[in-house]
Amino acid sequence: MAIQGGVGKRLRPARQVMRLARLGSFHRTRLSFMPALLRQLRQERWGFARPLWDVDAAGVGQALYTARGPRRTYSLVAFAHDLPADMRSDRVIATAWDCTFCLFDGIPDRHDLERLAAQVPKQEAGRLTDRELSLSRANRSVRLWDYVVDALAQGRQPEEAMIRKVGYLMRTTAVYGSGKFGAADRAVIKDRKVLALPFRAELLSVYLIRAFVMDLVEHCARAKGGDRAVALTPSLRRLFGIGNSTGLGMAPFLVNHPILLHAWIMAREQALARVRAVTRPTQEEREAFLQALDRTRADIHQWHCDHPLQKAKIADLRKDMGVLMRHCQTQGFDQVNPWDALIYWSEGHLTLEGQEQLVSLVIEPYGWLVDDLNASMSADEEAGFSINGGMHVKTLKGLIAKHYDWALAIDFSNRKENAKFWYVSQEKMEPRLGLRYEEPGSDMELPLGIARDMQALAHALEVYSPTRLVADFLLAKPQHRHVVRRVQFIERYPYAEIRDNLLAQSLNPLDLLRCKLSFFGATRFDPRSDRWLRICMYENEPFPYELQRGHHNNPSVHVV
Amino acid sequence: MSYSLSEIAAQSLKATRGAGYPWGIAQEAGVATAVLSGYGLPGVAGLCRLLQIMAGPPWHQMQQHRPQVSARLHSSSFPVWQAQEGFLCSVLAGCAIADYANLIIKAGGLVMKSVYVPLLTAAAARVVAQVGQVGVTVTWEGAIIACSPRDLRHISGDDLLVDNVPEVSMTCRALEEEGLHKDVVAQAALTARDQINVQDKCWRRLEVFAERTYVPDSETSRLSGAGAGVQDND
Q1: Would an 8 Å CB–CB cutoff place A162 in contact with chain B?
Q2: Could you tell me what percentage of chain A is helix, strand and coil, using 3-state DSSP and rounding each to the nearest 5?
Q3: Do the Cβ atoms of B112 and B96 come closer than 8 Å?
Q4: Model pTM greater than 0.90?
Q5: Which end of chain A is less congested by CB atoms within 10 angstroms, N or C?
Q6: CB A363 within 8 A of CB A327
Q7: Three-state DSSP class for residue A394
Q8: Distances A241 to A29, A342, B127, B203 between C-alpha atoms, Å
């Protein structure tokens, strides 16, 4: 296969990509963190073991799972509790869970386990050390847990339709990393080959949690059914992922980690650009694309959601995939640069959902061409932190006009454009979204209104001499410092800024969550309101014991 | 108690904002405190002292403690910074030091008069070292802190938490003169976690400031702010 054309020439511009409606239509790709992690674990021949299983007949106790790579070993320490049904809640404000976990750096000894047993079940109220890399907890699915335990205990397999309907036996309600609650700082793992990439410690935790949950459900079935009990058949087992319940807490992350956001988007756009530059795809690549399209169409039928906005988007996507299939059947792939032509065609014929699903689909056959981009998906926010005080005000104004014209065009005298504000709740210290003109607290607003603050900066600069230095301006007007920083890095990191108003009445915060979760590689994106949702992780992926035997996971393209 | 650097950065950011500084300044204070803590220096205690004396008046009064940058900085002479009124706030001075890094390097250094908790300017000295690829030394009353682009070292001085220091000097030199080599690996200098200890009373004081950035919950916000309904189980 030949590749033609400069890849850089075909990168989609930030003004097209960085709109919330498009980011909120992103789907998982083969570069997403979960499939990429499993690829690396398989390539490096990681081994997995369960050196400790101390769980009683009621399903209460502790277990240890180890993941051993060429250089390091990590351990999931799992605690299973007896949680009364009335205490089970997905909310981050819950104080007790069915299971609690941490990822330990190495293999814990007896003293470590004693210490962790006293701290991990308390979650946010406990204290970790720099030997712990992640802290998390999970609750049982009320719909599925008892059903599966009962079925297996009675010697029969659960119905496939029931499993597909829910997708998981337990869902995590928080997975913390990066120094939270005393755990190891990101600096500790940032130079490690496997854990250096974003959210790797958290996602390795979840992968091992999935194995633990399957062991636990079979253990409970055996305890209940004795000799009659059976294990899950491997094909049904694969259907179980781990659920996750998440909310606004993760939304400000994208604004507060602009350099990282740029790295993620840049990798995805570079992958697309490389594929668009392929002049003549091989027969295998064409077939791989069509197979991925077939799978996606089937997946869409498994994507259940009651939320009206998401239902409409799923309906659009279903229609889009039909249109795409017919287009491929009639047009074929015989022209030069067929993927480029297809992407170009999609912009006039598919909704944003369909366009971004197509991006995932065309990347899918090209592991050899794009998988190296995973290595560029971590970033150090320090790279964009320092302010260049020696820049002239004239240059700063030029950068604002060039990169923030979208922000300057918003009419903030219209209350609808300033209707919402982001704040941190005193009760749980989690980000929340309030209504500025109806609720108190906007004086403690988080600095996420980049568009509004950029307008204020531009306004303040109007009366400032263009020959003065940015340092002079900031000494006089330090209240603009947080946005001056952004103006100065945007030239180097064009995908760092979401080009929409996060204070607008029309803001749909789900778009922020969807973007982030697509990079994680989540599936079954299922909003429960406009501010929290459920997803599924590692569904249909091999279990640790299958991975070390070299079993391949399903290809990466699924609908989010 | 021992804290992670990300906890220290987050707590310092919120506390500085809660004490009345703008977000952009608070971001700098968060990073500075974490950098100092990472090298085993009492950045949290220093910030705690500073915020206690700075917090209270409205922002326009707090701003009087920023440096007055004289025109002399733009010439080749050694510039002198002092506050418009009273002592110089080391967080505001730190921001200005980083912003005027090139001019400070060109002048060869800087003198600051009447600085409150000068330790907090040391992280900005490291920024100057990075910008100019030079060695930078900060000295006051027997205390010496030396920075290279990738390192920060406490050379001498027992009490790094003096409040109001009449004069602080910052001098820039070629790296060899400082005896700090460009290739010093910053990670090696990072302090082990068990040495990053913060006094509980100090952390609690920061928490009091940080709490000013939180919005109290109401029944309405509990339901609508996070968007969850009554039933969130499945």
Answers
A1: no
A2: 50, 15, 35
A3: no
A4: yes
A5: N
A6: no
A7: helix
A8: 18, 33, 46, 40
Contact between B50 and B160 (Cβ < 8 Å):
no
Cβ-defined contact of A440 to B25 (cutoff 8 Å): no
ipTM of the complex: 0.93
| Cβ count within 10 A of residue B77 | 11
Which member of B25, B130, B232 has the closest CB to residue A481?
B25
Contacts of A455 (CB under 8 A, 6+ apart): A407, A408, A410, A412
Asked whether the beta carbons of residue A474 and residue B4 sit closer than 8 angstroms, the reply is: no
How far apart CA A279 and CA A258 sit, in angstroms, is: 34
Using the beta-carbon criterion (under 8 Å), do B228 and A427 form an inter-chain contact?
Answer: no
Q: Per-residue pLDDT for chain B (234 aa), expressed as one digit of tens each?
A: 889 999 999 999 999 999 999 999 999 999 999 999 999 999 999 999 999 999 999 999 999 999 998 755 555 568 999 998 899 999 999 999 999 999 999 999 999 999 999 999 999 999 999 999 999 999 999 999 999 998 899 999 888 998 899 999 999 998 865 455 444 434 444 556 766 889 999 999 999 999 999 999 877 676 665 555 444 556
Question: Could you write out the DSSP letters of every residue in A342-393?
Answer: HHHHHHHHS-HHHHHHHHHHHHTT-HHHHGGGGGG----GGGGT---TTSBH
Smallest CA–CA distance, residue B234 to chain A, in Å, is 5
For residue A186, the one-letter residue type is R
Q: Which two tokens stand for residue A213?
A: 């949950």
Q: A6 burial class (0-12, 13-18, 19+ CB within 10 angstroms)?
A: exposed
Q: Could you give the maximum distance between any two Cα atoms of chain B, in Å?
A: 71
Closest-CA residue in chain B for A382? B31
Largest distance between two CA atoms of chain A: 85
